[in-house]
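Worked Example 4.2. Consider the chain below.
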Amino acid sequence: MLNFFAIVLIIFIGILLLILRKRSFIKFINNGKLHSVKLKKNRNNNNKFLSNKKSFLYNHEAKKYSLFYKNSQRNKMFSLFQGNTEDKLKALKIAEELSDKSTLSILRKGLKDMSPEVVKLSALLIRKFK
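Applying the procedure from the previous section yields the following C-alpha cells:
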C-alpha cells in the first residue's frame, strides 16, 4: 500500500513539474517575441518610419498609450460624434490625439458632416495619412 502511494505521489510531482516547465517555457518564448518587437520598434523609431500598418501615426512618432486608454478614448470619440458640432470637434481632437487608422471611420463621417468646421478638421486629419 505504501508503494502505491509513493508511485502516485511521484507521478503527481512529475506531472506538476511538466506543467510548470511548460508554462515557464511559454513565458520564455513570449518574452523573446516581445523583445524582438521592441528591437524592431526601436529600429523603426530611428528611421522615423513605422512598419506596423495598424499603428500608423500622423507624425511618424511613437506615442505610447495603453490599449485600455486607446479603447476608452475611441469609445468616447464615437459617442461624442453623435452629438452637436462642439461634441464632434471634441471627438476629432481625440482622433488627432490617438492618430491611428482606427480613427479613419470617424474622419470619413466628419467629411460628410453639415458643419464646415468639422469638415475642415476632418480633411486636415485625413490629409496627414498620405
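Confidence is low (pLDDT under 50) at residues 43-62. Helices lie at 2-47, 67-80, 85-98, 104-111, 116-127. Compare this with Example 4.1 before moving on.
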